Amino acid sequence: MPSPLFEVKLRPDPLLHRVVLLAGVIAMVIGALIIIDLRLNLIWRCTAGVVWILDCLFELRRLLAGIAWVRQISLDSGGGITALDASGDSVSLTLQSGSMVLPGLAWLRVADEDGRFYAGLFARRRMGSLEWHRLQLLWQQSRKAFGHRAGP
Known about the structure:
The longest helix has 28 residues, at 42-69. The protein has helices at residues 14-37, 42-69, 129-141, and strands at residues 7-10, 70-76, 81-85, 90-95, 100-101, 105-111, 117-123. The chain has one domain. Helices cover 43% and strands 25% of the residues.
């Protein structure tokens, strides 16, 4: 008889979404200032600055689209990851590289088969202790399912 799946349901936190977006904007501005200060020809600095800002804006747009798309993420002990989207449908996801669960913070990057992307920051202090404990257990005990095998 197979054992039942152990799972955790994570609800994204709007405050942490704002923190991530603000960090992205700050990184974009600091990067542009560094590029302006480089000892390069003006044309090269302008080109690099435009490319940097466009890339940052593209990533911020992806983050915003993911925030609007995902309402809840579920991880289970079998390695399954699903999202409840804005319309209430369940979508199967794949863990992406760069995801990590630390003692007080978790950063999860996931995508569906159509290429829709979500990246979310989760904090122990902003979640219920039961959900955080379950996330820690799943991440530690299901390393073969989540922790080492990531997508592109």
